[in-house]
Amino acid sequence: MSSPHPSTDMLKQIREFTRTELIGKHEELDALSEAPLPLYDTFTKAGLANWWLPPELGGRGLGLEESVDIVSELSYGDAGVAFTTFVSILGTTMVSLYGSPELRERLLAPMAREGGFCATLGSEAAAGSELAKITTTATREGAGLVISGKKFFSSNSGFADFLVVIARSGDDPDEHVAVVVPRDSPGVTIERRWNMIGLRSSGTYQVSLDGCHVPMGNVLSGSGLRLLEIALNASRILIATTAIGVARCIRDLCMEYGKRKSLHGGKLVSNQVFGSKLADMEVGITVMRDVCRAAARDFDTLMKHPDAAGEFLREGTLKSAITAKMFCGRTGWDIASTGSEMFGGLGYTNELLVGKLVRDMRYVSIVEGGDDVLRDLLYKRFVIPVGKRG
Amino acid sequence: MSSPHPSTDMLKQIREFTRTELIGKHEELDALSEAPLPLYDTFTKAGLANWWLPPELGGRGLGLEESVDIVSELSYGDAGVAFTTFVSILGTTMVSLYGSPELRERLLAPMAREGGFCATLGSEAAAGSELAKITTTATREGAGLVISGKKFFSSNSGFADFLVVIARSGDDPDEHVAVVVPRDSPGVTIERRWNMIGLRSSGTYQVSLDGCHVPMGNVLSGSGLRLLEIALNASRILIATTAIGVARCIRDLCMEYGKRKSLHGGKLVSNQVFGSKLADMEVGITVMRDVCRAAARDFDTLMKHPDAAGEFLREGTLKSAITAKMFCGRTGWDIASTGSEMFGGLGYTNELLVGKLVRDMRYVSIVEGGDDVLRDLLYKRFVIPVGKRG
Amino acid sequence: MSSPHPSTDMLKQIREFTRTELIGKHEELDALSEAPLPLYDTFTKAGLANWWLPPELGGRGLGLEESVDIVSELSYGDAGVAFTTFVSILGTTMVSLYGSPELRERLLAPMAREGGFCATLGSEAAAGSELAKITTTATREGAGLVISGKKFFSSNSGFADFLVVIARSGDDPDEHVAVVVPRDSPGVTIERRWNMIGLRSSGTYQVSLDGCHVPMGNVLSGSGLRLLEIALNASRILIATTAIGVARCIRDLCMEYGKRKSLHGGKLVSNQVFGSKLADMEVGITVMRDVCRAAARDFDTLMKHPDAAGEFLREGTLKSAITAKMFCGRTGWDIASTGSEMFGGLGYTNELLVGKLVRDMRYVSIVEGGDDVLRDLLYKRFVIPVGKRG
Amino acid sequence: MSSPHPSTDMLKQIREFTRTELIGKHEELDALSEAPLPLYDTFTKAGLANWWLPPELGGRGLGLEESVDIVSELSYGDAGVAFTTFVSILGTTMVSLYGSPELRERLLAPMAREGGFCATLGSEAAAGSELAKITTTATREGAGLVISGKKFFSSNSGFADFLVVIARSGDDPDEHVAVVVPRDSPGVTIERRWNMIGLRSSGTYQVSLDGCHVPMGNVLSGSGLRLLEIALNASRILIATTAIGVARCIRDLCMEYGKRKSLHGGKLVSNQVFGSKLADMEVGITVMRDVCRAAARDFDTLMKHPDAAGEFLREGTLKSAITAKMFCGRTGWDIASTGSEMFGGLGYTNELLVGKLVRDMRYVSIVEGGDDVLRDLLYKRFVIPVGKRG
């Protein structure tokens, strides 16, 4: 990138992609069509894929703070597309920080140059909010590991190039590892694609691993649960960020409707109660962006540290990251709830877009840790210890 | 009915119907299948149809207060079915109070004895929250009237026996009439069925009326807009009531899930935060029922008045009726919002019922007057006049 | 009372009392002046005191449902006065249901005929939300009991005629008794009057009991904790009811201000956002009244049962009573919060009444069981048991 | 300042001041004692006064972003003290940007070196939310202006060194000026000090100006209303910031109480519902700080612009500034409301600090523009124009 403002360039390209590929195509995007949709090829061909990967691997090297506006823009078009394009960051962050140089080069360089996806396999049917209950095992066998288990919700795994699997160590059941499994490994089976309420242009899968052999070099260094926790900072911040884009879209739909809709001899847009609600939406949008950017700066600061891997191991979950996800989940839902009542009876039909937006918005508070789980974590880590309070 | 407790009998039958015909059949009920579904025949054959019609016409004669638990029970099973079975009350109330004895006998007695539906055609594309903008006209021609216009949202009209049409008077454009049009009249065309976000076992239609001839005897006495306003009291109270049933269903699903779901070595049901949320749901359910019953008693009291027609003309909209709809719409939505976050990632898939319940619940705040419209009405009618305040 | 409508008469008298004694006297009522204020004499002389006491003891015998409007009216004038006049019901209910005929006659007949107060001494410094931790003891000595302990919050005890003390049994530390102690008994010391944030025309005291001798006939029959729980139904419903009166006063002050206040060339009262907020207040007021009346009817129904004492022992806490208190506490606080922002900068001075009303309103959610305590109780008693759900 | 980290030094000093002068002295601070309290001398002597004034005038030159933590810390001790120390920024910003070099030197240099206060006189009895209704006039007379009028709410004016008065121009009634009037000018009368509900260690006054003569050099350049609007950005951001400090204090009081308070055999601090509420407070605190800092950065960026005066004239009200005030007002109030229910009955007495904190918190949503006024402004300026949306 020779441009002096790589993020401005990127944002311009993202806006163009959103305008041409997403806006106005909601019916198809909402249809649970075959995943991944062809538009991801377009995204990759435009050189946009995996924009956060570092320049030394051939990536654009954009930070998380710059990603806030990128993801807001994409999710203005479609939250499922936004999610699909960024959620690989969960796996790439683990590999980038805790994989060997060989592994980084082997896995991440192609993603930076040619696009592609990775998936993280954490949760299991009985290990959702309590990941320590994971029963998938990684057992030593010869010079490598054998991975077996069943994973419940895993985004992108149906078409990812590789999977980062969190598994219980066969040597020590109190230990967990994070280990890379190529998706085409024998033993990897995509059991089903989940029929999701929203984000229907994305794909989330149930996956079974039946005796998958991988070399020891595929193991990331450090506790698998801690590594996952660290990488969740990035994806949670960007999940929070999708709420901004969806909320902006709801706001703009309301304003367009308000300009058309007659009321008491004027237009709805001149009604004070309408204005008051739109102002509240704008406040929410402004605050959500502030919060996501503040969290992203925290993440970027650690990422730029000479010993980023060590710093992240010490920090684990960032308060700002889970704050962003909780706050944007609620604020986004409030905006979606208000928006869904703005269009009269039409707003209760599938003629208008708002119904899809409400369904898309809902995921922010649910995916990668519900509010109750995160609140509990935040209380224990950042309120009980006096020195961690704000 | 010889039973000393007709409402207890009825409620028992309704529970049986809900258990056998609705619970566990949500996939079909949510599928926007052909309307009306065969189960409405079952409902009619069980003698349950149009339970509020008066004994002198062959009906069960249950009051609105008794209808609260009936509708709560039905909507526990499926809100769309509940809505379909009660929304005829909008038309039957107008006919019952303001139709000639001949009209009442001709239209309502069959509905009481053999079931069947009626539909009310009020809103138009440009006359939703402002019904005074109605452009459908009723013009004198010979000994009768000719009705022409396009109606936007009309529930049940695709299969109703007759339609109560609100139209502008051809004689005086400041006047409106409510006039009965048999659905099989020449000129009545069902233009489309709306693809609704929820309540998908019900049918709401766009209807055009093209030169429909009706005799003068089909005209109800009084201003059409006022008559509609009066009858909306009944349907709004029952719309509010559906929120109770849906909320009860959400609560019970949460409790079932809470008993199964392991958490921190115990069950979710023992978690204090979970208990606190369920307690809040129960408070909401209790209060919604109190509010609906209070409004229903107000309605029943007027209905039992010797000059019910005159009393209702004087009262118009009841404060308690719009209070019930506004309150239950919001409280129901809060419960649905909380409920939708209770099931972890599974709650964001269509495997569980909660997604449908959220979509069903949404209608309470939207149909038959959004909150902004009702708040405005309530302020002008019941807050500005000192004597009308509570 | 020979009038056919005793409650209408009563309400008329209460309105007169409120108008002449309370409205416009807020400065004095808010001043933490000597308690009880002389106006309670006026109240008694008008024959209004303890209006719920039964006719056979010389009382007016008004039910709790009728008391809802009475207390709403009084608290429209001043919540502290309302509280002072009704909170004796906590003790009189226990004596009325579980005292010997002699005790009822001795204690309640004078209160019915001549007015006066009783106080209940339940909570202790370390036994607030957990009354089972009470350390005050009632030990047999000779033909009577000796009561010793320290009670934390007790309303009216500084001027009550008798105290109903909840104490741990000296015979069996797992048992508690409710026992009547005349306030002038040797050993009764009023330690301090609490400086309350609101309700400042009422008096709440810390009391010590140091070897107070009472005859066995002063003991009420049944478990002291259960008896207290039963009587709390009455006081909690009336505490909830005070929120209605305070909210009505806030609403009226807002409307008066809105009529005076100029805005954009008109009056604030014509502003749509203002109207929308006032409509929401009216909805809240309407719903609060419905909820309090529903709970009061539940209480009255049990009270009229031939075996009221036994029925209440079986029921204990009524779901409707704690629902009313929780709901009105929150709704009242929402209204107070909105109201406090309605008057611009003036609303932040002590020139206007709204600051006092906010402070008064706050008590509803705090006194006689905070929301967390009641939610926990409601969950365990009325949500976990399937048959108790609404 | 030779220190490489002036803001760290400052913050350390502020913490020390808060610890020694404010914490534990709430009774006096809440007493509406003589203003200004002697502690402001201590503040000045420590070199802390007016910390934002630029180095070229002898000030510390700290930016608004750095002021966020300073004001949060002060208001952790006492919001009234925080408000008193920063609200001069309203006047100093106007003088700094739009006063002549002579005026800046004459007025601001002493404030930077020796402390002191200035006050802004904007609102009038009939010109609160609509400042364009100001009737105070500034009329040319000889070589100067004569100012006459009555000003309603003016903080610090009872003890300020000079007043910045917003007045209608005598030449053109459509124009307004901002003009400096020394407080000791003949004709300036402090009519009364307002008895405020909270912030009682601060002083807000009603002031009359009766023919006050000032030279033309005292007039600031530009429209008085626009200048006021510009300067309000700074004070509104810092008003928002006080909510952070008060909220942090509430949180810490809750945690201290939670550690002491026994519940169900453990401590309240281990209760999940308690933890959940505290986590929500922490989320609120974190987000408020993010929002205030983002707004402060916006302000600082403009302030550092070579043509700051011109840039501010173009921008006027910053969206981020009113967003911060609205958001922190509401979030702070939610935290205060929750906090006020945390301490059981004791929390309803004046024994505990929480009652004062609730009263202090309330001002954030009221002072310098209520939410309805700001929402209206935000809608018109930043939502209707498409390009201004977030």
Describe the structure.
- Four copies of one chain form a homotetramer.
- The first copy, chain A, is of the alpha+beta class and 390 residues long.
- Chain A folds into three domains: 8-114, Acyl-CoA dehydrogenase/oxidase, N-terminal domain (Butyryl-Coa Dehydrogenase, subunit A, domain 1, Orthogonal Bundle), CATH 1.10.540; 118-218, Butyryl-CoA Dehydrogenase, subunit A, domain 2; 226-388, Butyryl-CoA Dehydrogenase, subunit A, domain 3.
- Chain A is 50% helix and 15% strand.
- Chain A contains 13 helices and nine strands.
- In chain A, the strands form two sheets. In chain A, strands 1, 2, 3, 4, 5, 6 and 7 form a seven-stranded mixed sheet that branches. In chain A, strands 8-9 form a two-stranded antiparallel sheet.
- The two termini of chain A are 39 Å apart.
- The model of chain A has no long low-confidence stretch (mean pLDDT 96).
- Chains C and D meet through strand 8, helix 11, helix 12 and helix 13 of C and strand 8, helix 11, helix 12 and helix 13 of D.
